[in-house]
Amino acid sequence: MPLSEQEQRLLEEMERSLYHNDADFVASVGASRLRPNYRSIAIGVLLAVVGIVALIAGVALQLLWLGIVGFVVMFTGVLLALSPGKAMKGMSTPADPGRRPTQARSDQGFMDKLNDRWDRRQDGQ
């Protein structure tokens, strides 16, 4: 069920007030839009598996140095896989809430295009 005009105005007023009064909160919420880096995840998982194999081989063969190297490789792989991704391109910054994403049309998905068209229609453009 769509919002009435009064509810939309009230919601927009609350949003402007939030942007104006609590910029730190808006910045922290806006910064959480990250895209996962699949290459880092794949390499990290591969390193973790190699590290586990080396750790088990070090214990089985009673080679302390191989176990330690395996643990370090495994730990590095897990850290690499869990590292944060990159920020998404075209996202509006919290400091400028009215700005539209400036990415090319070919980069946008179908739903993004529909949402942009809907927003332009609502803004009267």
UniProtKB/TrEMBL annotation:
Residues 86-125 are annotated as: Disordered. Keywords: Membrane, Transmembrane, Transmembrane helix. Residues 113-125 have a biased composition (Basic and acidic residues). The chain crosses the membrane at residues 38-57, 63-82. InterPro entries: DUF3040 (IPR021401). This is Membrane protein. It comes from Cryobacterium roopkundense.
